[in-house]
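Re-running the complex after MR caught last week's input typo. The corrected sequence lines follow. Everything else is unchanged.
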Amino acid sequence: MNTTFLEYVVFFVASLMMLGGAIGVILFKNPVHAALGLVLTLFGVAVQFVAQEAHFLAAVQVIVYAGAIVVLFLFVIMLLGVDRAVDLSIEPIPIQRPLAAVMTVGLVGLVSAAVIKAGDAIGTLNPGLGLDVAGETTADGQNIVSNDGNIQQLARNLYNDHVLAFQLTSVLLIVAVVGTVLLTRKWPKQGAAT
Amino acid sequence: MTLTQSSIQGLVAIDPLGTGGLLWTALLIMIVKVLIIFGVSLVATMLMIWAERKVVSGMHNRIGPNKAGPFGLLQSLADGIKAFFKETFRPSKSDPFVYRLAPYLMFVPAFLIWSVLPLGGDFTNGNDGMVTIFGQVTRVQLADPPIGILLVLAMSSIAVYGVMLAGWASGSKYPLLGAVRGSAQMISYEAALGLSLAAVLLSSGTLSTAGIVQTQNSFADWNLVATGIVPFVIFLIATTAELNRPPFDLVEAEQELVSGFNTEYGGISFALFFLAEFMNVITMSGVIVTLFLGGPQPIAGIDIPLLPGAVEGTVWFVLKLLVFLYMYIWLRATLPRLRYDQLMDLGWKVLIPVALGWFLLLAALRQFSPDGTAAESIRVTAICVVVGAAAIALFMAALRVSQKNREQMSEPLQEGSPV
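Corrected-run output:
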């Protein structure tokens, strides 16, 4: 499949959304606006997924990340009342900013190195397209293969090949939930009742 | 030339069934579909608002709107025109951008759900819902993406932003309280919604809405029957909560919160919220019909005389839809509002465990009794019931322990001892 003009347009628009949102997360002074910037980034990623024919991942991206996680962020921001513009000149941890700069340079270097190193491989790898053959129809309009090839492939991968990793991830999440409950719980003080 | 052609093909490829043959006809049909659905959705919403006011007033022994047009049919139109020409204003403490954005975040998802609903189709003579227009074989549905029903979930999770940001951006406390309540409620019930949906997907084996309709060929195949009635009931309750309809309309509990998240809105932005709310009632009823009642499939294979097969599907769909629309109005006129803790208890402690348990039972039946023989099914069900009973007993024990702990902790406070 050759890259068409439309695919370029989609890619650049989605990338602009992602970059704009990401910059917004950092630059907006109001936490609610920053959270909305994050939502914009997540939508950009979802568009990229759709462009790569990973429809299921796009849907999950919107439902889980935009629909649940960022909503929880907003919840906390609103409930704690930190939604007023914050004075950014105050630094709670002094070394934080220089450290962040170092980390950023390191991360950019790492990603660029990976891209340069793996640049030759682009084009030789199977692009993962065509797993769902939604566009293929016969003369009488019937789909030859079901639309769900993509999802079935993903499910087979996740629940057969990587089932242990999947289970471990769920355990990790449970541990996180239990830990949160334990940490936020008010324990009765020993001997304070009398 | 090749550039534009390929890009148009890319556009049309969004509708997998609009491709092939003449490109321009496909594109034209697509545009016509969009326009028709846009018009139909607006008119349907207008009629829904009228019907709700009329039916509720009938149940209240009142007359209801009766001045504008015959039977007051044009009342919603008059209200819409009035709202549209009102001067828009913004409270001084509100957030300028988010305040304007919020109504659209609710309105646009409400519209987009229409795109995946199968609104009709030809199910006579084994046509499987295909309709031929100008030599193009297509569905009476705007798009049939492979993720189909997940789009509905995604849109309803975006609508949460509409409620939440509207309340926050108003810069006033009642809208904020309404918004926090509303979004907490919507997120909580989305879990139950998704779990009962999983039962349907298990029985249909596809995510595409057209595919889900196709698998419900006869009454026994309707997901209402095929999944047992439990997922249907849970889905119905969860959608009612998701729509913020009575008895779950805590978002706009007038006695406590003025009007909830939209208190500070007026004019066209309020009209957008209002429109989205009623449009969501129609779309979610459509989703229920699609998932559980076979969508535009005929009831008991009845072939309506004198009507072409292509129209019959729409007739069936509308008939089934009207049942649910009437039910929602009836609920509103009948049931008192729940208390907030009752709402959360129902969602988390009843609906989610039951939906999950029922889903596991269906999965076990499917795996260990694929032929559906009585002996095997009973054995699997018995094992599941035992496991389920043990799980429920553990759950109840945990609840009792936490209850006891809470009482112990609050005891010194009740006696007025120093904290």
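None of the earlier attempt is carried over here. The longest helix of chain A spans residues 55-80. Confidence is low (pLDDT under 50) at residues 127-146 of chain A.
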